[in-house]
Design a protein that fits this description.
heterodimer, A: 224 residues, alpha/beta, Rossmann fold, six-stranded mixed sheet, four-stranded antiparallel sheet, 10 strands, 34% helix, B: 850 residues, alpha+beta, nine-stranded mixed sheet, eight-stranded mixed sheet, 26 helices, 19 strands, binds adenosine-5'-diphosphate, binds magnesium ion
Amino acid sequence: MLTFSAISKTYYQPDGDIQVLRQADLHLPAGQTAALLGESGCGKSTLLHLAAGLDQPDSGQIMIHDQCASDFSDRQWNHLRRETLSLVFQQYHLVPTLSVLDNLLLQARLANRLNPGLQQHLIDRLGLAPLLGRLPHQLSGGQQQRVAIGRVLMHQPRLILADEPTGNLDEATSHSVMELFTTLVKETGSSLLMVTHSQVMANYLDHQWLLQAGQITPVLARDT
Amino acid sequence: MKRQFKQTIWVFVTLISHYRRHPGQALTMALGLISGVALWAAVQLINDHARSSYAEADQLLGAEARYWIRSDNGLGVAVADYIGLRRAGFEQLYPVIETQVRDAQGRSVAIIATDLLALPVGNGIGSSARYSNPFGASSWLALIQADYQAWYPQSLASQLGIEPGQQLVLASGERLPPALIQTQTQQGQRVFMDIAAAMAILGTDTFSYLGVGRLSKLEHLRLAALLPATLKLVTNHQALDLAQVTESLHTHLTALGLLSFAVGLFIVFNAVRFSLLARQGTLTTLREMGISLGMLSIAIIAESLLWTLFGTSLGLVMGYALSQLLLPAMAMSLQSLYAAELGSLIGIQPEQVLLAFGLSLTGVVLALTLPLWLRARESIRRQRDTAAQWQQDQRGIRWLALVAMGLLGLAAVLYPWMASIEQGFLMLALLMFGGALLLPWLVLGLIKTCARLLPKHQWLLRWAVSDALAQLPHLRIALMALLLTLTANIGVTTLVGSFRTALGDWLETRLAADIYVQSESLDIEAIKQAAWLSGYSPRIGLDLRWQNRPTSIRGLDLTAPDTVDMVLVQDHGVLDHGGQNQQAQDQALQAWRAGDSPVIPILANEQVQYLAHTPLGSIIELPTPAGPRRFKIVGYVHDYGNSSLAFYLPGETVMAHWPAAELLGAGLWLSEPAAQIDPDWLSSRLSALGVKPGQWVLQGEIKRISFAIFDRTFAITATLNTLTLLVAGLSLLTALLAVHQQRLPEYAHWRSMGVNFSQWLQIAALPLLLMLAVTLLLALPLGFSLSWLLINKLNVIAFGWTMPLLWSWWPLAKLGILTLGIVLTTLTVSVVRVRQTLPTAIKQLAGDSG
Ligand SMILES: Nc1ncnc2c1ncn2[C@@H]1O[C@H](COP(=O)(O)OP(=O)(O)O)[C@@H](O)[C@H]1O
Ligand SMILES: [Mg+2]
């Protein structure tokens, strides 16, 4: 689903260049989930943004869903993001003026991919039914992240890229959110690449990779 | 203590560093401040300058006189009476001759003369001529010694083509003393000379009137008792003075100046709020780092002081430049309307500079205290919570609406008591600010209703509408400023439009004749015989004082075409206007023509009704040589642009009561259409009738000049209005740029979710257009009320004339288009800015989320 071949990325700074990725390789098969572990500042977010086309690598090749995306134009990336990809952030990035229901449906609407059956199912599973009429600021952090996850799943993307989705949540909430998230990802058949610094959260996923000194090495592969 | 100081400096530097990274924001903030101050300062400078010019002119005109001694039959004051009074110990008396003469070319020249030696010392021209005259004592001596001097203001001299030392030849053949061109602006459009010279040249042995300086109560009684029966001691209410006459015009301008200041205040408020808002994160971080609110406030206040200093200084410079640009038009208008002279150089007074700083500082402080106070009351934690901020904002909007209702209610309660110009402007201010404060509430209501009513599947539209909730807190002040300027624009445009139409209609009926002649030496019999003329209407009359105001009595020829078609003030159907309906008018005119009722019917101009407060049907007394005579006012006529009172009677009636009334001129009707007449042929024919070149003017020419004066007078208003609108547009731009800059991360995230550009544009633009629509819609009724007040109340109070309110759509449409253009431009600029910065923002999603 997602393949990095020999990807390099350097931030050129006046006070010294930061080489974040050096010829990094990675392969995430379709329908599988992987955690990208690593210390803070090692380049996890950078990698995720390269995968989402929010930034461009210096060299190397990115394949997404059998398409070579490394030399996509802005327009092509937009199309890809709209149709195939979804991002989940640590800050939930809900649209504060829209109700919970409208936030849930937003991305699916943008991609013109509403599915009433899935909608009902996700609402039930995420336990959002009593909250649908509220505005985001009337929810707790865990509830907000459940809405953000629901929004991504409603979109039915082939690939979900998540950057520390539980980073803002307490431990108990983190566990319940992760459990729901991974289960639902499996149900909908999406692939998931999740960045985290927490080994505990990584355990919810099929693969665990470590990003260190610009290279990616598998730590654990579970057969599914 | 020292540590605290250092800390404060650090906080200050941290805050200021914001502008290094966002020079655009610094620029817009500066622009807002500067343009606000500049507009206000320009109007203020012009007004102050004009006022001080009048004050100088007043000194010469004798405003220092507490009383006048005048004859009640218009015959003047005999020299013997004057000498008698001075001998009786009244040293504070001085003689004045004020008259109009014609020069050899038939041009009318105003002359004012007094006895410099008799003027009360330390007063008026007495002191300025004797002790502070720029020409020195020698020129003062030259003025009062044979062969005397005639002082001309610069503009009059060039108008008459007089060179220094030259002697103006009068129609009588007499010569005025050698000319001295006055660079001081002290005498209006008149020639000033010594009274002895004037008496010799004019061949008169009476004074026009006597000026009287300060009198004690006892002296006042003694003087009144001493006066001969024909002379009267009247208090100088300054009704004659330029300052008084032009006051209404300046009040209008002051109101405009205050409006631009109010708009400027909104803009400063806006700018300060944004600079705070844009640094909200930094502020909160500083608070989280243990910086006290007090220290933050000190740093912010220091920054505002810097801004005030910078913005006001530059604003004053710009305002000065602007005032220099506007002054010539203003000076010409004042000169043609009131014969008032303005100097050509504006000086800035220290008071004005202080006032400007004070005002913008007030704006900045007002803008700062509220947000700081609110901030002080809430926890640091809440400051990170934008949703909580909106909630607070919506509560604020409801409060504003309550205050607005209060203001509007107060206006409603005060309305019946409105009697003076100041009260009128208070009413306008209540109305406009009430409307402005109500605006956000209305917008909020509309947003909520739209969000509720839009069908569920219109999700993008609903999103766009609901996004207005996020934009409103940032845009509402700019919207209020826009509303204020739109309201003022609509109000003033309607006033000017109505006035122009009324003036046109009035000139049409009033100037029925083809040619107007001003000459005392008309050969009436020859005119009656001339085949190339189809009709004529002589005007006779005289000027006197009534109710202590300059008043003219005019005698009309009942058979003349324009008298036959005379139109009285119509009943506009507006509340308390004293107009009559058609039938009553016909009866009144009939009675006036017949003139045989026990009390003689008389017509008056509207100014008699509103400035002298004399209602229809009043019995009035006018002074005649045979003593006071009673007349009954049976109707009013429009008399736009006249600052004195006027009464109209049939010519014979005037001659019967005032034998001294003179032939002032005549209107002539041509047998052939005026357009087909050759001017040279006309000129020669008129000469044959005793009318010299320069003594006649074609009707079309008068109309052209009238409209030229009119348009010039209101050009200044239009310029100021447009400038204010542009400034309001600028503040909208600042606001939009700030909103988008602050929300850029949000937009970046939308983008990463697949929101494309056109969708984003809808979300960004639709709320703005919605808010604009509400603003325009509210501006209509407000502007209408404003023009209603201006036309039916303020205008009547100030000038004493009425006109029908005409609501025409074209200027409104133009204003709407202009506003839309401004808004679309600001929108485009901000959208382009977002397009430029969005890619970076998208990349920064990394930093934002990790
Ligand atoms: N836009 C940027 N410009 C320069 N350096 C950057 C930028 N974004 C990230 N970095 C640097 O690259 C490194 C990796 O950052 P990031 O990918 O956010 O790390 P992680 O997500 O693993 O914490 C960090 O050292 C960071 O300082
Ligand atoms: Mg990160």
